[in-house]
Design goal:
The complex is a heterodimer of chains A (113) and B (113). By secondary structure, chain A is mainly beta. Helix content of chain A is 0%, strand content 54%. Chain A is built from no helices and 11 strands. In chain A, strands 2, 4, 5, 6, 9, 10 and 11 form a 7-stranded mixed beta sheet that branches. In chain A, strands 1-3-8-7 form a 4-stranded antiparallel beta sheet, with no helix packed on it. In chain A, a hairpin with a 2-residue loop joins strand 7 and strand 8. Chain A starts with a strand and ends with a strand. In chain B, 0% of the residues lie in helices and 54% in strands. Chain B contains no helices and 11 strands. In chain B, the strands form 2 sheets. In chain B, strands 2, 4, 5, 9, 10 and 11 form a 6-stranded mixed beta sheet that branches. Chain B has a 5-stranded antiparallel beta sheet with strand order 1-3-8-7-6, with no helix packed on it. In chain B, 35% of the residues are buried. The chains are: A mainly beta (113), B mainly beta (113).
């Protein structure tokens, strides 16, 4: 499976600031996905990022809060804007390989004070 | 009704026993089903995928799918303490042209020596 890396692995941020999370894949992929996992919860899809087009956001997530870039087929960023403590979560990127099998990066653990 | 539901845990089994994890889904058009294992502090790891009715075996893991009953399960034979983790059932939402996975809430499995 693809090797996926994320930066930063964790961060502690102040309320009202923004954090950009990077996701790098070692092979070209058409679609990349961003998920959120709140403490003690399961995963929720934030958006799908395709190269060369705007990201597709799921219900409850908006571009102003979670802007996404996808400049090429191996890289994407997710920004968490104007953060509040409710944004404290693990943010994960994933890619598809094979028959719709998704593989996840190691995640970014965000704490907002 | 939640889109993907897993049997409530936590589930505790003795070492060497069979652990049985269950999942039901609401979208009858779903075609692809996955089991992920997530260790504490780690990202989800894909352990099984299943697409057709019946059983699929991979080592100590067996996935079972019954589309008529909208039911998918994971059996872990000869359970080991290293199997202790949260197991997530994920369903590829029917009708989507991209890989949107909907996750269950997860079942915590503890295998005690």
């Amino acid at each position: 499976s693809a090797v996926i890396s994320q930066k930063p692995s964790r961060d502690i941020c102040q309320r009202g600031t923004s954090l950009t999370i990077q996701c790098q894949v070692d092979s070209q992929v058409t679609m990349m996905f961003w998920y959120r996992q709140q403490p003690g919860q399961s995963l929720t899809l934030i958006a799908t990022a395709n190269q060369g087009s705007e990201a597709t956001y799921e219900s409850g997530f908006v571009i102003d809060k979670f802007p996404i870039s996808r400049p090429n087929l191996t890289f994407s960023t997710l920004t968490v804007s104007n953060m509040s403590p409710e944004d404290s979560s693990i943010y994960l990127c994933s890619v598809i390989q094979g028959w719709n099998e998704q593989f996840f990066g190691p995640g970014t653990r965000l704490t907002v004070l | 009704q939640k889109e993907v539901e897993q049997n409530s845990g936590p589930l505790s089994v003795p070492e060497g026993a069979i652990a049985s994890l269950n999942c039901t889904y609401s979208d009858r058009g779903s075609q692809s089903f996955f089991w992920y294992r997530q260790y504490s502090g780690k990202s989800p790891e894909l352990i099984m995928s299943i697409y057709s009715n019946g059983d699929k075996e991979d080592g100590r893991f067996t996935a079972q799918l019954n589309k008529a009953s909208q039911y998918v399960s994971l059996l872990i034979r000869d359970s080991q303490p290293s199997d202790s983790a949260t197991y997530l059932c994920a369903v590829l939402t029917g009708g989507t042209s991209y890989g949107k996975l909907t996750f269950g809430q997860g079942t915590i499995l503890t295998v005690h020596p």
